[in-house]
Give the backbone structure.
Amino acid sequence: MGSAYEVAAYALRYWFIAAVLVVLIAVIYISYKEYQQKKFVMTEISQFGGYMKIIGGPREFVGDRFGLRENNTIGSAPDCDIVLPDRTVKRNHAVIFQDGDDYYLQPGQKAPTKINGRRATTAHRLKTGDAVSFGDVEMRVYFKRTRIENDH
Amino acid sequence: MIIKRFGAGIVLAFMILFLLSGMLLLSFAGGAFNMEAALLGVIFAVFLIVQYNVLKSIFKHLERFALLIADFLCVISIVILYRIDPETAQKQLIWILIGNVCMIVAMLVIKRTHDFGKANWFFMILAVGMLGMTLLFASRIGGAKNWINIGPFSFQPSEFAKILFLIVTAYFLSSRERKRDMWPYFLFTIACVGLLVLSRDLGAALLFAGTFLIVFYVGTGSVGITLGATAAFAGGALLSYKMFDHVRTRVEVWQDPWATYNDKGYQIVQGLLAIASGGLLGTGLGLGMPEVIPVGTSDYIFAAIAEEFGIIVAIGIIALYLVFIIRGILIAMDARTKFDKLLVFGATAMLSLQSFIIIGGVIKLIPLTGITMPFVSSGGSSMLSAMMQLGIIEGVALKNGEYEEAELEEMGGGVA
């Protein structure tokens, strides 16, 4: 019995080493993968100052979201940042741009644009929750709240 | 835009297999089948599975990797302690269970708190009071005077003062802009380190001073004061080397343990012999002689592990500590307030310093100071304080996760 135990213990040392190495490598690999993914998502998100959501217009678009960067061109042309393929939307319909902390909407010429139901022809400042419509497409804008500041 | 959580089940599975195979092997050690060892292993395995899954489902943003690493270190601790002394292993299991409760309490407290505000003054008085009480009433074990006996229980107040020290450090370094407003904190540090040196608990004094230097530099970025404080601590170390026989002996023994093999160097020599006889692959669980090392269950547990499991496993354990440190630092960098950052960083720095001071001492890299190896050494107080530090890390991780989720939700994302 004693020697059987010795053989078992002697053989099992390889298993113990393997188990420790598997745990070590698995912890490093999984946590690294998760960190990489989190980093990717958080950088992706930090580029956007807010987003627009389609709330009215052609049924198939409702609910779509678009992230807002520093400069966003909106229109039906495929090279726009935010493409709205609708016949009432002009090819280059409007631009939403950032100036300081605020976002402004600059409608294109003769493009039917409304902010909260009122016709806009010049640049206007946007607030979070504003309803904006380009032709028949109605959208709502949301901006990120200011970050949770440091406590000192 | 969804952050997907990866499953870490494989880590838990191999951990449980390690525990069960180790305990099963040990249950045959005496020749006949010993039910007790197998039972202990099964109880701990069930506990680990329940703990991990329950915590994971209650707290969505749990930092799982730090928890798993701590659990794995506990597993190794239970196996090797049962090998050396079954009674200690049973006690250790109970302390691990209590430690988990402490961890959850610390986690919830840290999650809810902002920076403890005025309560920090009370913490300072409490910490100094505990250390002062140690100096007056403690009993002496192995040269250091750091145990307080109350009835059948004995505990080390310096272990709990550590937690208070971390909180006070984070509070003062985050709430005071100018360095001259931090004077109560400087006085507090000097009082803590001084009391520890007077009660001859040099390992803890080194730990407090080292944590102060690291966290102070990280918190303020002031090179001048940090260098000045380093010089002051070096001077203090030199002074204590001149003043205390105890310290001088330690340094002499470190320089040449073989000269006093029969007497003071015995422990270090036995530790080195144990590591050497283990070699690369180890002697096999139960086939070595770790019981000849004095204090083999607490301070010298690293030598026992290196003997029976081999140096590869021992290096694996050091690597696990390193991963733990990296996870802690990542959480500290993610934290949204300066208090949280410094608190997590302090807890991580303290745990890493503690593990490397004792591992360095065992392999005769630096003079040996008697402190415990976090999560592995036997001992109630040290297990509780290590678990509380883990709880601090987890609590801030929960806070981070909530902020992160709020940010993601603004953009229509989430954490899965």
The two ends of chain B are 10 Å apart (CA to CA). Chain B has a mean pLDDT of 88.
